[in-house]
Automatic annotation (TrEMBL):
It is found in: Cell membrane. It is a multi-pass membrane protein. InterPro entries: PHBA_efflux_AaeB/fusaric-R (IPR006726). Its main location: membrane. This is FUSC family protein. The chain crosses the membrane at residues 20-40, 94-113, 120-140, 152-172, 438-457, 520-540. PANTHER family: MULTIDRUG RESISTANCE PROTEIN MDTO, P-HYDROXYBENZOIC ACID EFFLUX PUMP SUBUNIT-RELATED. Keywords: Cell membrane, Membrane, Transmembrane, Transmembrane helix, Transport.
Length: 714
């Protein structure tokens, strides 16, 4: 027990060198910003130190990105704050509703953005709120307050950036290597999962699901590496394209594995390519884990193309076998058709894997005249955006109501931190969990600030001793910020400690001011936590239900949209849903979570096969009767409202029976192959609708049957 207790605090007494360097660098930067603010006779110098801790992140790219967007958000928020006071001076009951609408709009729109782009919008919200509430009793000083706020932010960012540049003067080469390592690791994990799936291992499906969920988060991290490289190359775009190709490869692999399982005994023409593919997947995995993956890429790509050529040769052999003058018989004809489909599917998978390796190589050695661009759109949850906006607007109104009704001298501080907390966490996926850590960190900051204010500082009168007094508490906070178990508490602790100590040139906190001000801060944050818990609280089941409804609507759109959707865009969209499910899952062993992941995978498979059916229909090579059957199937999906897919499965089954009969009697080779693809696609649709009927029924919440099985008959 003692050893376990000590290990929990290893981050403090035996930190890693990189963590110690981060804490030391950021502490020095924060104290430098504070000293400069005191030297410049600023009225609230603590905000400069707070900004330094706010923009300091685990990587240089994250710090630069957050600093940039914080500066943008602060400037725009300052303009908005001045405009609010200028439009409604001394009109509290008009100011608060307008401020609430503005904050709600910013927080709602921030839900649609990722990373620090979202942070800039919420920063606009709470910066305008801070300025407006500070100037509410003195509207003639609003411009000075806005300028002062912007100056603190700029000073804190400059100090953090300057110290970070000293510790990490050149990051371009390091960032490029990190991008290659992340993408190479993802490719290695993908081929490992593919090899396991091709061997029929049960654990491979779980690994493939978690890998698909992590692709999107890795794509987000690449943005920070691009910042470190100052966007001088297209390495980030190539990395995102490689990750998208990996997602398509995994989807293709899952479909191929399911097709192999349906086929039963593998056709002889597919056995050799499959064995070669498994060996090649192991070689790619070993190369990606090796010291120089880039050097192995040309040879690996040559092997992929060679294996692809063999797949094409085998499928041509199957075509020749079924197109001879003598019929091979029904059973043999079906084996040749299965071999054709399996080899063609494996060939397409190899092409996408080759594209992933090509993009990986381009991240390290840019092609000549490279203007490549690729982006992965985020998952947009409109309901969550409305909830965030309404919740934030309501919190602002509540803070203003408390201030107006109580006449509390520190009511403005209370209202400000209601705005700050609600804005800061409104766009988070789980604001209840994150805001509780924010409250915990504020309480720790109050306790440490009380010791510094009443015991340490009374006997000091110069800035040198002030710096020494704050150095150790800030270092502890910096080390805690680098440990995953304490980061949620350490971040607000570091942010609030300078504010609660409230250093100044001509002032010193007395007991009454300390307790009034800091109690207003803690109560404001606590009020926000209460709002997150009571007003439209985050509900994992409700979010999953919304995701299911959105997926079914997307399937209708795929079936009836005027233009055939891009399969890569569809896979990327579903991959973002995977990422959200994986992030919100308490444990990946949870049966309900795994059932949802199976459902999303099923929806991805259904969507891809609908796109493929539309492609076959658009080429015009199907017989009229079969084309009409495919059109009926697509029309049924286009009008599907999302109940139990009994009728939909019946229509798919009827079309499938018609096509199976047509395959046996078709003498035109080209049409026979197209019919074979139609059969394969419809078989997959029938199986997915049957296996995941509960998931597709969006008229009710999705729960596992009492026996715990995640499957249900249509």
């Amino acid at each position: 027990m003692t050893d376990g207790f000590l290990r929990r605090f290893r981050w403090l007494y035996a930190p890693r060198l990189s963590n110690f360097g981060f804490a030391l660098r950021t502490t020095i930067a924060a104290l430098l910003a504070l000293v400069l603010a005191l030297w410049m006779e600023m009225d609230n110098p603590q905000w400069a130190a707070m900004t330094t801790w706010i923009v300091a992140q685990n990587s240089r790219g994250q710090s630069l990105s957050k600093a940039r967007w914080r500066l943008v958000g602060t400037c725009l928020g300052a303009v908005a704050g001045v405009a609010l006071i200028a439009a409604m001076p001394q009109s509290a009951w008009l100011l608060f509703p307008v401020l609430a609408i503005w904050v709600g709009a910013c927080c709602g729109l921030a839900t649609f953005l990722r990373n620090f782009h979202s942070y800039a919008l919420v920063l606009m919200a709470f910066t305008s709120g801070l300025i407006a509430l500070n100037a509410a009793n003195a509207p003639h000083q609003v411009f000075d307050i806005a300028l002062s706020r912007s100056t603190y932010i700029f000073l804190g960012i400059v100090c953090e950036s300057a110290l970070a540049a000293v510790f990490a003067p050149s990051l371009i080469d390091v960032a490029r290597r990190e991008i290659g390592q992340k993408v190479g690791a993802a490719i290695g994990q993908a081929v490992q999962a593919l090899g396991s799936m091709m061997q029929g291992r049960e654990g491979a499906f779980l690994k493939s699901r978690t890998l698909l969920g992590s692709v999107f988060s890795v794509s987000d991290q690449i943005e920070f590496s691009e910042v470190e490289m100052q966007h001088r190359t297209r390495a980030g775009d190539h990395a995102r394209a490689a990750l998208a190709s990996i997602a398509v490869v995994m989807s293709r692999g899952l479909g191929l594995s399911a097709r192999m399982h349906t086929t039963g005994v593998l056709p002889p023409a597919f056995v050799t390519p499959l064995a070669r593919a498994q060996v090649l997947f192991a070689s790619i995995q070993a190369a990606m884990a090796g010291p120089d993956p880039l050097a192995a890429i040309p040879a690996l790509r040559a092997q992929l193309r060679d294996l692809g050529a063999e797949c094409r040769q085998q499928l041509v052999n199957d075509i020749i076998a079924v197109s001879g003058a003598t019929s091979p018989g029904r059973a043999a004809g079906q084996r040749h058709l299965d071999g054709y489909i399996l080899n063609a599917s494996l060939g397409v998978l190899l092409v996408r894997l080759d594209a992933a390796l090509a993009h990986l190589a381009a991240t390290q050695v840019a092609p000549a005249h490279d203007h490549f661009h690729f982006s992965m759109p985020p998952w947009r949850d409109r309901t969550a955006a409305w909830h965030n906006g309404i919740r934030s607007a309501g919190a602002v109104l509540m803070g203003g109501l408390v201030w107006e009704c109580t006449g509390w001298p520190d009511g403005a501080t209370f209202a400000m931190f209601v705005v700050v907390t609600c804005s800061r966490f409104a766009a988070n996926e789980n604001p209840v969990r994150d805001s509780i850590g924010f409250l915990r960190g504020a309480v720790w900051a109050v306790l440490v600030a009380a010791i510094i204010t009443f015991i340490v500082l009374p006997d000091q009168a110069v800035w040198e001793t002030l710096v020494l007094s704050l150095f150790v508490p800030m270092m502890v906070g910096g080390l805690a910020l680098r440990d995953a178990r304490t980061a949620g508490t350490a971040a607000p602790y570091n942010n609030f400690l300078p504010f609660m100590v409230y250093p100044g040139n001509q002032s010193r906190l007395d007991e009454l001011t300390f307790f009034n001000t800091n109690s207003a801060v803690v109560l404001g944050i606590g009020c926000s936590v209460l709002v997150f818990r009571l007003v439209l609280p985050f509900d994992l089941d409700a979010e999953r239900w919304r995701m299911r409804r959105q997926i079914v609507r997307d399937l209708r759109r795929i079936a009836q949209a005027p233009a055939i959707p891009d399969p890569g865009a569809w896979v990327n969209r579903l991959t973002t849903g995977f990422a959200r499910l994986v992030r919100h899952a308490a444990t990946m062993s949870d049966a309900q979570t795994n059932a949802y992941l199976d459902g999303v995978l099923s929806a991805m498979t259904v969507g891809l096969n609908l796109i493929r059916l539309r492609g076959l229909l658009a080429r015009g090579g199907l017989p009229p009767a079969i084309g009409a059957a495919v059109a009926r199937t697509l029309a049924a999906f286009g009008t599907w409202k999302g109940g139990l897919p009994v009728e939909l499965a019946r229509i798919v089954a009827a079309s499938l029976a018609q096509m199976r009969a047509a395959v046996a009697g078709e003498v035109n080779l080209s049409r026979r192959l197209d019919l074979g693809w139609c059969v394969a696609y419809l078989e997959i649709l029938e199986r997915e609708l049957h296996t995941n009927a509960r998931f597709f029924d969006i008229t009710r919440r999705f729960h596992l049957p009492p026996d715990g099985a995640g499957k249900d008959a249509a």
